[in-house]
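Morning run. Coffee first, then this:
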Amino acid sequence: METGICGSDSVLLHPEAEAYVESLVNFDIKKFGSPEWRTQHERLEKLNMQAVINATRNEDEFVKELLVDNDKIPLLIAQVITVDVWKDEVLPIILSTNFQPKSTIPLYLVLYNEATILNLLETVLYHKSALETGQDSLLDLVDYCHSKLVRATCGSVSEWVPGPDDLKNQSEEGDAMKDLLRQRDSLDFECSVKIVSILRYIIDDVTNLPVSIVTRILNSHNLPVILSSLATNPPWRRYDSKGICSKFIDGRWQTVNDSDRFTASKTEGQVWLSLLTLLMDPECQRKYEWNDYNKNQILKLRSELQEVLLDQLPVLSQLQRFLNHLSISEPPPPTKSLVLEQVPEIRDAILRRHGNSWAGIAKFQMKSVFDPSPDEMMRIASKMSETYNLDVLETLIDPPKCSLCGKAASKRCSRCQTQWYCGRECQVTDWKQHKSVCNSIK
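And here it is:
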């Protein structure tokens, strides 16, 4: 029998992680939601938790090593793309019916599986050894990232992220499928943030990438322009009716002061560093198609390169000088060379394999896996409780600090659930400063 948490300082021991990695398989889309698929999802979740803990603590990243040694990076990429195809082809059919399951948890697990795999990839692809292992599938991953970022730039990825009051209202409304749609939008938005990091790791290794992938990044998908749009109009930065700025940081929206408005968050910094590589790398400059449209879109970056951002990321001063020079000069035409362009295969293979059978898959899954019996639902809930043992997981991360004095904190603001304090004295003292933020979040 599998255990939820194996010890006081880890989610998985090395032998358990090794067994989990070796057991990973590429599930067909028809199998999504099945007991075997749920077991793999639980194992992926635990591998993800352990990988994050090891990376955060600068410990031996044995999960990453196991994934690389067992050549499982391509499998993870294939599975995340398969989930995306399920969301595009099967989920809309399910939503178009009058399907009212007793619980939407089995459906939600499929949606959440995408976020779990992306989080695991974000952790392990930081290392070049993982990039090298997954190189045969990187073209498919780049295509997947491109499609997600296009949705983000077009505003088709919702900015809604649930808070405590939202969850309470959902249970009162009783429209489970409507809640599922909101959860899907929330996860899509969080996935777009993870994708920015993954794409940055790929771009950082641009000098070692196959020519076909570089060409696809630069010209087929025109990522310099897409990233420029994300830098000048980021979906993870928004303003309310009073002009107060909020940024999506660490999985939630946080109000920022006017003085910090131009300070880059982690996600914004990843966008800028990706742009720096694509626009400043000599080989990329030679291959990029510098037409009038691309040039004008990229020059819009100059308005965002404020002093605050340059002080935070001094390396961007190189980009600023390049843009100033670009504005008064004509870049050379791209270097033309014969390239036998590769095409992504994973998504197309899935679409060819299932053809016009999406309605049949949806009907089968609604009947057999997405509306379980009460006893089966109890078993699913029990396994989830075991996997997401938050009381134990809190002991695995650094303890929170008091927002006022910096000491170890044990109490949290009951209204917004975001600020930590060591005791009531610090909480009362900080209330004048925290009140406006607390009210805006609540």
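Residues 3 and 373 are 24 Å apart (CA to CA). Good start to the day.
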